[in-house]
Amino acid sequence: MKKENLLSKMCMVCNRPFSWRKKWEKVWNEVKYCSEKCKRNKKG
Questions:
Q1: What is the CA radius of gyration of the chain?
Q2: Which residues, other chains included, contact 6 with Cβ-Cβ below 8 Å and sequence gap of 6+?
Q3: Exposure of 27 by Cβ count < 10 A (0-12 exposed, 13-18 middle, 19+ buried)?
Q4: Which pTM does this prediction carry?
Q5: Could you tell me which of 31, 6, 42, 23 has the C-alpha nearest to residue 14?
Q6: pLDDT tens digits, residue range 4-44?
Q7: Residues near 1 by beta carbon (within 8 Å), at least 6 away in sequence
Q8: 4, exposed or middle or buried, with CB in 10 Å at 0-12, 13-18, 19+?
Q9: How many angstroms separate the CA atoms of 37 and 2, rounded?
Q10: What does the alpha-carbon distance between residue 18 and residue 37 come to, in Å, rounded to a whole number?
Q11: Which among 3, 11, 12, 28 is least buried, having the fewest CB atoms inside 10 angstroms?
């Protein structure tokens, strides 16, 4: 898959776009944050 054809989402914490990664292949629908840092800083 070419880089420009990858799926993307907006991070729920920093509001920046992030692209699909191979490690998220099976859980892409559940991914909400672009990084572990954003995941830790989410508002409860």
A1: 11
A2: 19, 20
A3: exposed
A4: 0.77
A5: 42
A6: 788 999 999 999 999 999 999 999 999 999 999 999 998 76
A7: none
A8: exposed
A9: 27
A10: 14
A11: 3
Amino acid at 40: R
Tokens of 5: 């054809």
Which two structure tokens, joined as six digits, stand for 33?
Answer: 């944050």
> Helix/strand/coil (H, E, C) string of 31-43?
CCCCCHHHHHCCC
Name residue 5's amino acid: N
Looking at the DSSP assignment, which residues form a beta bridge with residue 17?
Answer: 10
Token pair recorded at residue 20? 């699909």
- For 42: left if phi > 0, alpha if psi spans -120 to 50, otherwise beta; the answer is beta
Q: Which two tokens stand for residue 37?
A: 């840092």
